[in-house]
Amino acid sequence: MIAEYLKKHKTIPAVAAAFGMTALFGLAILAIGFNALFNPNTQPVLAAPADPSAAASADPAALQQMQELIAQYQAREQQYKAELNQAAAQLNQANQQLSQYQALVSGLENAGIIQISPDGRVFLGGGQRRGGGDDGGGD
Prior knowledge:
Strand order of the largest sheet: 1-2-3
Shape: flat
Structural class: mainly alpha
Low-confidence stretches: 128-133, 135-139
Largest sheet: 3 strands, antiparallel
């Protein structure tokens, strides 16, 4: 009778299994947490000083060395920023020149002075080929 009831209502075993798995995982997480909390086999942090400012004042040579490194890094950062700004200016100038060249080529095409084939060859006026490229002839 119970087997027939469970066959008709399959959600009940599924929900029970889900709650059971959740409970097992929850207990496992709690066990790991309590073990970590109450584990006597921990080692204290010995290398770290109790007061970080005391460590800095205890070794002025190390502090001076760190300040010099920071100054070097800041100078390098300024140099990189200047180089980056210069490269950006050059890129802007190149983009402006490219726009001018594109406008020039487009104007020459619209005026019928040049024709550009799909493969990139340039023809002057009425289709006469000028410049490099194979003219299709023999030797």
